[in-house]
Amino acid sequence: MKLRRKKAFNETTFLLTITITLFFAMYIAGMIVFKNNGFARLQVFLNLFISNASLIVIAAGMTVVMITGGIDISVGSFVAMSCMMLAHMMERSGYGAIHSVLIVLLTGIVFGFVQGYLVSYLKIQPFIVTLAGMFFARGMTAIISQDMISIKNPMFLSWATHKIYLPFGGYTNRKGVLVIPYIYPTVIIALIALVVIWALLRYTKFGRRIYAIGGSETSALLMGLNVRRTRLFAYILDGFLCAIGGILFCLNTCSGFVEQAKGLEMEAIAGAVIGGTLLTGGVGNVFGSLFGVLIKGTIETFITFQGTLSSWWTRITIAALLAFFIILQSLLASSKLKKRR
Amino acid sequence: MEEHQHVVLTMRGICKSFPGVKALQDVDFTLRTGEIHALMGENGAGKSTLIKVLTGVYELDKGEIRLEGIDHPIVNRSPEEAQSKGISTVYQEVNLCPNLSVAENIYIGREPKKFGRIDWKTMNRLGAELLKSLDIDVDVTVPLGHYSIALQQMVAIARAVDMSAKVLILDEPTSSLDELEVEKLFTLMRKLKGQGVGIIFVTHFLEQVYEVCDRITVLRNGQLVGEYPVAQLPRLQLVAKMMGKDFDDLASIKSLRKHTPAEDVVISTERLGHSGTIKPFDLQIQKGQVVGLAGLLGSGRSELARCIYGTDRPDSGKLHVDGREFAASHPIDSMHAGMAYLPEDRKNEGIIADLSVRENIMIALQAKRGVFKLLSRKEQEEFTDKYIDLLQIKTSDRDAPVKSLSGGNQQKVILGRWLLTEPDFFILDEPTRGIDVGTKTEIQKLVLQLADQGTSVMFISSEIDEMLRTCDKMEVLRDGAKVAELDGDRMSQESIMASIAGGER
Amino acid sequence: MNEKLKRITHYRLFLPLICLALVLLVNMIKTPTFFHLSIKNGVLYGYTVDVVNRASELVILAVGMTLVVASSAGTDISVGAVMAVAGAVCCYILSGGAVSVNEYHAPWILGLLAALVAGTVCGAWNGFLVSRMKIQPMVATLILFTAGRGIAQLITKGQITYIRVESFKLLGANIPGIPLPTPIFIAIIVVLITSIVLKKTALGLYIEAVGINPTASRNVGIKSKQIIFFTYTFCGLLAGIAGMIATSRIYSADANNIGLNMELDAILAVALGGNSLGGGKFSISGSVIGAYTIQALTTTLYAMGVSADQIPVYKAIVVVIIVTLQSEEFNRYMRKFSARFAARKAEVAK
């Protein structure tokens, strides 16, 4: 028997298509407008990844949590805390680089566990829990140290400054010097993390359960899935990814201070939402979030190239984009509801 | 029944009580392989409690459940445990994840794996084969939410069957389907029946029972009325059994009405309709008239009331109030037009649980007056005391939270709330459900009093005798359409039940 | 005896009052001078005056937050940023765009009104997203939470705009001849007006009804969308007022620091005031006491040598404790636990 299939209109692909089109449109527009400033160079594109390596990882963690229907606004503060921990441990407490990194990763897991426990087992609104987490981590950063600590640990710096040259895309500049495009190890780590998370979400039971509880918690329960544990693990994974993100952030800045990474939570949320993750949960894709982050990076690059605009324009544009996509999602959802009736 | 059928499930002497209610008393139920067994009963009959006891949502107080192939009584502690024994349930609201693909929904929790990762190819192939074997034509890689509710339900059934269901419970699966979809569901059910699955079909649509079922078990007020082969139970008798009337003692119940309503029409509808729930409906209500809406659950009686009051917006037709065309964009408009509405679902749509008795009573009048004209504390207390007195609401204090009152008293609070607004037209949807007998009589008397004072009333109830006592006119609904309008001498239990049952059986 | 104790502990304001008493007690022991008052040049000085004065913005925000929580079961986390926006708008108008001025470029009242309008517009935007677009309150307000300070910096061109006019400082300091600082009076006026409006109109009842049961509220003729929209808009207006006080205190618009971390304090004040973050019944007085308690706590922590950056740690812990205590799941665990404990005790007794 043949049953009528609902119009094959997929809001996920729709949102993602908008995002990817938007990214390429913006990038091409940038190449035309800033033609003389070298916007079209490969290095400019690579810089998008270099300066946003940590955000890519954090947005992936945010995507995981948002697919469960939750949210995490503590990520910015946690990054600041990670940087401060690294800086303090290496410069003031005499830990080695490897030990410091491991301790930060462990802290991320513990932080994720506590937040996840409060959300999944005590059923406290994720927003309240992570809001508290946000203030806790920021305050903790200040408790560790209120100074700005620059990292001089040679091993850490060697990681941070190790350029990996690409075998292609080189060009000769005006002075006749060959410039070869390069990336830092941070980019590779970020991309590996991204692929791992993608595979985790797609090919493991845990990954599919995350989608299931975001799609319908009651259904997931009735289908015999352990909703609480899955949600807890999602937050732990998010905490772990935030710790990686924090380390990558620190590799970029090589310092720790209280005011670092302010507003990063919104950039991560915006990245996920712009990349097609639904605020209501159940739908999302880490590669979509990658494009969301790249859009933010492109806006930043515009502002740098333009030269006269101030940096807070980035934040306002991101907020406007976020608002736009949130409203779009809401309108899509209500039109779908109407169709159902 | 055919010879090769054997019993797959027996439930004997099932008892279950909740605080203050005996939901099931000594109920028996037997299911055979390859049969579709209808479980029927009106609201509060105990259908869903029985299902929940069977699937392990509730623990039973007494009785035993036996399943074919297990030589001791079984106890289910959770739906998963029931499922692992071969008892699966598909609900009216599809309990699958709309964001996952069809194949995934069938296999989640038991995905085929290869090299430690989910093997999507195999999963999609298996899913497609399974659905094909059941004649369900879908693309298994598409998110489930893109298909109609009917198809989602069939996927849910496919999942249940694939998890080796001996017993398949379909809990009101047809409520949100259109006729074509219902037909397709029935085809699937017959196919499964042919494969030897025992199906429990909970529904309140009589036609569907006679179309697809082999046997009927009727429950009423938590007790077993009986089990009958479909062929031996004509519709009219089925309705009588559900409503608790035997034809032998069908003594006519006298109407308590003394006054005759005035001629002027207060409310009239002209082909008023709401897609999916009510077909175009004509209705006229006179001043001081009590009009009853009879029909089984899901017949559209509550939906009609909601469309008139404006909680749901009708899609077609017109509504006239006092001769003028009227369209409410919000219930407040209807209130200003003189309407009042006591909803069927007291807990979720009626009371505001944390507010006090006083606040619950004064809130409708307050909303009518507007936010700036607050009733003075003195007025509020006066009104509250008046209705506590008039309706004999039992409460420790007028400022006690309304949630601390019993169900009957909560209902009286809502009645008081609306009486205070002095409505011209009062819609009462199941005002006596879950209320003790004494209060029931009081409410009936109140309705008569109101009518005598010139208020028009729309009275909805599952109990025919209380409507016979109070109504001047009865509209009988079936499947969202008016099937009879009865008044005067034509109004009797027999005529009403015959109309509800429909058909010529 | 037990009955009586139960009645006392179930009193709505029990928790906030106990907390306040606790904080005051700690202060009394640690800093004996805490309750000392002195008069210099006709102005009252002392720790307590300082606490009450400093708490003014928080009190005002807590009032708005209480209504938002009650009507929508969500919180407005943009209040701190909205304060900064209001301050920036005011200073921009009064300075005419200059970095520092010694006299007004526009009438003072114009700047004040513009600030309040800015706050109200921000609140209305939040209210629109929450009530019309049905977006979760926290996500909706997150947009202004981060963008707000950017907007404020845009207005002030990234600089701290100073208004070095004596009369501008009056809102945040003492009016000559009056012994108490002005913010105290503004806070009292806001609380009074709000309480009177809630008492004299049906608004308070509507807000509670919508928060408890939106469907039933609709059935009795209450327009829940309008109510929710109103609470957010009003919360924005109050954030504007608080922003004006904060701006006047430092006679400048500092986009980065005005209202910093205030959102957590405001939410904490509401929760500490005995209000459920799940919406419904509310008590303004509870939130007000909560706000003073938090300020007392903050001052105490300062006195103990904790820096402003570090204080959020302690507040975050308090928030988590309070919401855990409010959580139904937690209470269920506790009941289960105590039942098991009682059973074991009974067994031992046998």
Q: Could you explain how this protein is built, in words?
A:
The complex is a heterotrimer of chains A (341), B (505) and C (350). Chain A is built from 13 helices and six strands. Chain B has three domains: 240 residues, 3-Layer(aba) Sandwich (Rossmann fold), CATH 3.40.50.300; 153 residues, Rossmann fold (3-Layer(aba) Sandwich); 66 residues, no CATH class. Chain B is built from 17 helices and 21 strands. About 1% of the residues of chain B have low confidence. Chain C has a domain of 242 residues. In chain C, helix 2 runs parallel beside helix 13, helix 5 packs parallel to helix 7 and helix 5 crosses helix 11. In chain C, a hairpin with a 2-residue loop joins strand 1 and strand 2. Chain C is mainly alpha-helical and 350 residues long. At the A-C interface, helix 5, helix 11 and helix 13 of A face helix 7, helix 12, helix 14 and helix 15 of C.
Name of the top-level CATH class of chain A? Mainly Alpha
- pLDDT below 50 for ≥5 consecutive residues: which ranges of chain A? 1-9
- CATH top level of the largest domain in chain B is Alpha Beta
Question: Biggest sheet of chain A, in brief?
Answer: 2 strands, antiparallel
- Rg of chain A to the nearest angstrom? 21 Å
- CATH architectural category of chain A: Orthogonal Bundle
Which H/E pattern describes the elements of chain A?
HHHHHEHEEEEHHHHEHHH
Strand order of the largest sheet of chain B: 5-8-9-3-10-11
Structural class of chain A: mainly alpha
Whole-number total of structural domains of chain B: 3
Largest interface: A-C, 46 and 47 residues
Rg for CA atoms of chain B: 25 Å
Mean of pLDDT of chain B? 86
Spell out the blueprint of helices and strands.
The complex is a heterotrimer of chains A (341), B (505) and C (350).
Chain A: H1 11-33, H2 42-67, H3 75-91, H4 97-120, H5 126-144, E1 149-150, H6 154-161, E2 164-165, E3 171-172, E4 178-179, E5 182-183, H7 185-203, H8 205-215, H9 217-222, H10 227-253, E6 255-256, H11 264-274, H12 286-306, H13 312-340
Antiparallel strand pairs in A: 1-6, 2-5, 3-4
Helix pairs in contact in A: 1-12, 2-7, 2-8, 2-10, 2-11, 2-12, 3-4, 3-5, 3-10, 4-5, 4-10, 7-8, 7-10, 8-10, 11-12, 11-13, 12-13
Chain B: E1 7-18, E2 21-32, E3 36-40, H1 47-55, E4 62-67, H2 79-84, E5 87-90, H3 102-107, E6 113-114, E7 117-118, H4 120-133, H5 149-162, E8 167-171, H6 179-194, E9 198-202, H7 206-212, E10 215-220, E11 223-229, H8 235-243, E12 265-274, E13 278-286, E14 290-294, H9 301-309, E15 316-321, E16 324-325, H10 331-336, E17 339-342, H11 346-350, H12 357-369, H13 377-390, H14 407-419, E18 425-429, H15 437-452, E19 456-460, H16 464-470, E20 473-478, E21 481-487, H17 493-501
Parallel strand pairs in B: 3-9, 3-10, 5-8, 8-9, 14-19, 14-20, 17-18, 18-19
Antiparallel strand pairs in B: 1-2, 1-4, 6-7, 10-11, 12-13, 12-15, 15-16, 20-21
Helix pairs in contact in B: 5-6, 8-17, 12-13, 12-14
Chain C: H1 2-9, H2 14-30, E1 38-40, E2 43-45, H3 47-54, H4 56-72, H5 79-95, E3 100-101, H6 108-132, H7 137-155, E4 161-163, H8 182-200, H9 203-212, H10 214-219, H11 224-249, E5 252-253, H12 262-272, H13 284-303, H14 311-326, H15 328-349
Parallel strand pairs in C: 3-4
Antiparallel strand pairs in C: 1-2, 4-5
